[in-house]
Amino acid sequence: MQQSEQAVRQAQAKNYDLQQGARPEEIEVLKAQLAEAQANELLAKLEKDRIQKLVKSGSASASTLDQLMASWRAAQARVATIQSNIQVAELAAREHTLEVAVAQQKAAEAARDEVNWQLQQRTVHTRREGRVEDVFHQLGEYVNAGTPVVMLLPDDALKVRFYLPQHKLSQLQPGSQVKVYRDGQSQAVSAQVSFISDVAEFTPPVIFSAESRDKLVYRVEAQFQLSS
Q: CB–CB of 83/35 below 8 Å?
């Protein structure tokens, strides 16, 4: 993740640098060179004008004037060249170079986002609140991909199942409220009937007792949430 973030920062810096042109210090160097070239051009012009007057009076040769004219034109060209260099330095990079830099920045950001997503996948979040009912693997064990690690019981999935004889079936319907009593708890817990079987079945052996003698009963389920 740190490597991908560093790549993004590097791409952003490169993109910004290409948009800014040359550094201010580099432009200042060019301006100093321009000032020197302008001074040399002025000196060459003054010398050329002086000799030009002497040539007219016959005190200087035409060849000397030609040399000074060439020096003056060279000084002018030097000034124009440095001025052009300053203009180029102040410009951003060429359009297609900027497009490449933008594309590289987007690619680095996409790679960063992918690494971030992979990092987030190392932490698993349940989509429903609940409690852990069973733990299948302990810390240090090797687990294959897709293998359950824990068993969760969602808060809204906790239910009670009981059986009613036919003559009491009419007292309940889906949505009815019932009171559930637990061993060791004097206070009842409210539950809402969510399912009533329409098929009679024999009384399950696990609930058969002297108080439950009806052979045919109906299964009823009610959902509730126990407080912690």
A: no
What CA–CA distance (Å, rounded) separates 159 from 143?
31
Bridge partners for 159 per DSSP: 223
Rounded distance between C-alpha atoms, residue 174 and residue 60, angstroms: 124
Closest among 11, 8, 6, 3 to 118, alpha carbons compared: 3
- pTM of the predicted structure, to 2 decimals: 0.39
Backbone angles phi, psi at 178, to 5 degrees: -130, 160
Q: What is the mean pLDDT of residues 84-95?
A: 72
Six-digit token pair at 222?
Answer: 């009610």
Considering only CA atoms, which of 8, 210, 225 is closest in space to residue 106?
8
What is the spatial distance between Cα 118 and Cα 126, in angstroms, rounded to a whole number?
A: 17
Structure letter (DSSP) for residue 119: H
Please count the CA atoms within 13 angstroms of the CA of 85 that sit on its side-chain side.
16
Percent of the chain predicted with pLDDT > 90: 19
